[in-house]
Design goal:
Distance between the termini: 53 Å
Low-confidence stretches: none
Strand order of the largest sheet: 5-4-1-6-11-8-12
Strand content: 25-35%
Mean pLDDT: 88
Number of helices: 10
Radius of gyration: 23 Å
Amino acid sequence: MNNEVLAIILGGGQGSRLFPLTQHRSKPAVPIGGSYRLIDIPISNCLHADIRRIFVLTQFNSASLNRHISQTYRMDPFSQGSVEILAAEQTPDNPNWYQGTADAVRQAARHIVRYDADYYLILAGDHLYRMDYAELVDAHIDRGADITIAAQPVSADAASALGIFRFDRNGQITAFEEKPKRERLDEIGRSIPPGATFTGYADDKPFVASMGVYVFTRDVLLEAIEADGATDFGRKIIPAALGRYAVHAHLFRGYWVDVGTVASFYDANIMLTRRDAPFRLYDPGKPIYTRARFLPGARLSDCTTRNTIVTEGCFVDRATIEDSIVGIRTHVQSGATIRRSVLLGADFYESDEHATTRGGQPRLGIGRDVVLDRVIVDKNARIGDGAHLVNEASVQRADGDGYYIRDGVIIVPKDGVIRPGTRV
């Protein structure tokens, strides 16, 4: 499959729903699981399927993503494999930035078509899942499909945030609706013929949603993206393709989540700490790859931990940590209590000499006697001694001094500083 499939990973737009995590980086570059980045998920899935020609399309804050990819995915120089960033660029034909997912592919097509590939695999850069793309492509070929869409049964609550299929009695897709409202979902549920393929999967998951993972036959993709007004796959390309092309759904039964919001990002990370987690980054057969940093093992001194992931290079001194992720190079000082929190770590160690000349700022990491509950601490943040970030008032959205609250979760941004004694 190495050369017949070319993967295109969509980096997304400004990522406002993940602000402030996307304030200084694109969505695919957001850290997850303590030592990984979101972009590592689709790239790792590609490599396990022996798909080694990969493009990543992005336009916002791409420096961090570009650096991570160049330092992580260095293919065999004797192969044709590569992972390449294609940032939005002005050209004589088009001076505009990407106007949507399909428009991103259209603008990048002049680079992509130079490669001889029979099929294009279109992926999102902000999803968490482990999928066998080889199985997906094989199903596409076996059915003689023009377009194959990975699909998953979902509940009514989740369906309103996703693209929902409708099927006929033979299981063929007859309609596709992007993010239908709840009342519209009731109409869709009544209109599905009993016994149709992909329907009635379970009483608690009566709808079938698109995962934003597509396989296109080469000529079909190039033709579809040139259609007038075709700026987005979910809203434009797929609905227009029904009845014109052979469009099939491929059912995926594993764990999958879109981590494009603060709430979903937080929940996905906390899920990883559970003993019965439905998704594990350390699968022995298909691991998730990331940058090799050559850091020492984590050092914990007289600590109490429960359901916690502590990554490499950390130093934790006499702290209590529960249901949390402690990212790379995190320094937690004595007396700290951390619950249900996600610490993204640090890009560097702070020397003792620098720590004494930092102009009154707290030391890098988590200070003494700090209390954190439902907090995301972005990279290189400084939490001063005695700070309590617990959101006792259950505020859903606010901007504070050195922090933000989104979806009820307190977020300390990258390089943020929380002054000693702060109470939230």
